[in-house]
Specification:
The protein is α/β, with parallel strands linked by helices and 333 residues long. It contains seven helices and 13 strands. An eight-stranded mixed beta sheet has the order 8-7-6-9-10-11-12-13, with helices on both faces. The chain has a three-stranded antiparallel beta sheet with strand order 1-5-2, with no helix packed on it. A two-stranded antiparallel ribbon has the order 3-4. 24% of the residues lie in helices and 18% in strands. Bound molecules: zinc ion. Zinc ion binds next to helix 6.
Amino acid sequence: MILFCEDQAPPGVKFLGWFHFQETNFEKGLSVIETKQGLLAQGAPLNQPASVQLLLFADVFLRTPFSGEHIQQLKKSCVALFGVGSIGSAIAKSLVRAGVENILLIDPDRLSLTNVFRHECSMLDVGRYKVTALAQSLLQINPQLSLKTMAENIFQWPSAQLENLLENVSVVIDSTDRPSARLTTASLGYELHKPVVHAGCFEEGRGGEVFWHIPDVKEPCYWCLREGMAQPPKSRTIDYSTAQGPDDFKGEPGLDAVTKSIAMAAVQISLALLLRGMPDCQLSLVLTTQSNYLLLGNAFSNNFYRFKGPFHTFFQPFNGPRKSCSLCQKTTH
Ligand SMILES: [Zn+2]
């Protein structure tokens, strides 16, 4: 997406329509934009920033390492994102930059001040629904997006309604932060035969995990993981958002960087799932590993949980599906 002042559109650029930005979202001037065709536009002061002409340069996403065929696949794919907090919002932005154009954003929460330091939205969005603020931000990356926002707890919906909502969804991404919501999302994906990617950050930012499950593939499901493997230790019971002082919660420096690293791994796994089965897709190779559970270490991870040192990142092997699993083996009981 490239924005130009009304009288500065270079030749060969397609005009799509009008798009309105809030003046506060805009700096005066535009960056120099370089494409395969060369320099397209130079920064120019915007005298009327609230109403600028929007033009799309068709090749904008071909700067990615994907072939055109892969890009077309991503454009028509639909992703449902459960939870658009720090990890979910970062996932959404990266998916858009990869060329995904149909996204369902689900989160009942509003952005609070304590979210801003690690969320993709800003101080200007505090008090707004996260899905609404994020959708606006995503449209500024690619105005051609087809976004649907759900600022409610859809887990309370009847199953038929949920099935209808997710009918055209290719991949479900779970970046919720409550264990019960994560299990429910896993169940939903399993029942509806949708691939699900779970992305989560461990306590104190001492690492994270990305787990995925592909329908009809004989591999452990998310319930197998949670029922069958010891979880990282929890040292605190007080949440940062309810802390009354420094004795309650000391905070984690650089938590934004921690959540981003987990989000970016989840994005690559999600893209691999969207492109699986297509020829010449290097990304899909990640799905052929022996484990569908990736543990991501960072600078805080030394001797925590299963990490053997800082930045220790590995596929955690585990056997399954578990015979006693409450989800994937329940029909046999
Ligand atoms: Zn299972």
